[in-house]
Amino acid sequence: MKNFSRQLLVAATMSVAAFGAAAQAQALKFGFVNTDRIFREAAPAQAAQAKLEQEFSKREADLNSQGAALKTASDKFEREAPTLSESQRLQRQRQLADQDRELQRRSREFQEDLNTRRNEELQQVLERANRVIKQVAESESYDLILQDAVYINPKNDITDKVLKALNGK
């Protein structure tokens, strides 16, 4: 019985060693891509940002000028308020409040439109980046590519390769 347990122990040890060697021989090759860096540094992302700035710059300038005009009107009202009659003061306060509400509404619409367009543009950049990541992974035989991680060893970071491929196209 003692001999049988010893043989079983030796067989189990040999099995674990063989399994470990097989697992070691087939180690996974994995890489990491920093998506934030792609969005900041890739030529398509920069082109998308420039496109958005061009598309929304006029509306933003209009909102800024309306805001400045409202501030000027509010400052003027503050200076003139003591000399105005009660009805004039109330009327101007309502006008300023209406203008402020309108400006806030337009600002919200602007932000919503800008965010929607930014998301559309970034989605296109992400789709293009994912295609490039897949090409890099296939050409260099990666088993796994991560895009979000708490910590990654810099030797596994393939962001530079992806940026080079994205900017080269």
Automatic annotation (TrEMBL):
Transmembrane parts of this sequence:
none
- Compositionally biased spans, kind Low complexity: 84-94
Recorded GO molecular functions are: unfolded protein binding
- SUPFAM superfamilies in the cross-refs: OmpH-like
Query: What keywords are annotated for this sequence in UniProt?
Result: Signal
Q: Which GO terms describe its cellular component?
A: cytosol
Organism (species): Paracidovorax wautersii
Alphabetical GO biological process terms: protein stabilization
| Protein name per UniProt | Chaperone protein Skp
* Bias-annotated ranges (Basic and acidic residues): 95-104
InterPro entries annotated for this entry? Chaperone_Skp, Skp_dom_sf
Signal peptide from the UniProt entry: 1-27
The UniProt entry, under Pfam families, shows: OmpH (PF03938)
The region called Disordered is annotated at: 63-104
